[in-house]
Amino acid sequence: MKLDDLVRTLAEDTQQPRLPLGRQLTVGLATGAALSCAILLVTAGVRPDLPEALLSWQVLAKFAFAGLLMAAAFAASLDAAQPDARGGSRALAAAPGLLAAAVGAELLTTPAGTWGAAASGRHPELCLVVVPALSALPLIAAVATLRRAAPASPTRLGLAMGLLCGALGAFVYMLRCTDDAPLFVAIWYSAAIALVGLAGALAGRRAFRW
């Protein structure tokens, strides 16, 4: 290829319109989440009492925690993907705040003798395994989507994406999990999401390095 042809090809490529970064990330995450949901449905299915369970404030608080964390981490990821990131991650404190309020309500309304069983749940080990597993495909999709980003801190972007995908994986697993106590969510779901956040930070450090 002649030099003039190469320059013309590169110029035409840069002129091709691309979706805004937020929309690209949404598409990537939706694809990964759909695959994770399909895996859950094929391997385990949803909890049989899901419609009735959604009438419980504990279940609603559980889903609200994951949804709020997803929204805040999505905004934090878009901010961190910019070279002039403003550090807009304060909203990430909203989800832990909601969860802390739910835990407080649980402690006030249940006997102290039940707290240990509520915290340990039925299958805590599954939470630590299944949530990261269901988060893997969304995280891979998010990393691939944001490879063209120019973050000021690759590690920070990776951490935000990890928290986002960890919350998404948790949300999907909540469709199956019957451990609804806020104490359980605060311990085991938070630990699982933190593991995905750490994985995201490590992946971001390598994938988004300038």
* Elements, N to C (H/E): HHHHHHHHH
Report the count of strand segments.
0
Our Rg estimate from Cα atoms comes to: 20 Å
How many H/I helices? 9
Described by the principal axes of the CA atoms, the overall outline is globular
Structural write-up:
With 210 residues, this protein is mainly α. It is built from nine helices and no strands. Helix 4 packs antiparallel against helix 5 and helix 4 packs antiparallel against helix 8. 40% of the residues are buried. About 6% of the residues have low confidence.
SSE layout and pairings?
Layout: H1 3-15, H2 21-43, H3 50-53, H4 57-80, H5 94-109, H6 115-120, H7 124-145, H8 154-174, H9 182-207
Helix pairs in contact: 2-7, 2-8, 4-5, 4-8, 5-9, 7-8, 7-9, 8-9
Care to give the gist of this entry?
By secondary structure, the protein is mainly alpha-helical.
Question: What attributes characterize this protein structure?
Answer:
9 helices, mainly alpha, globular, 210 residues
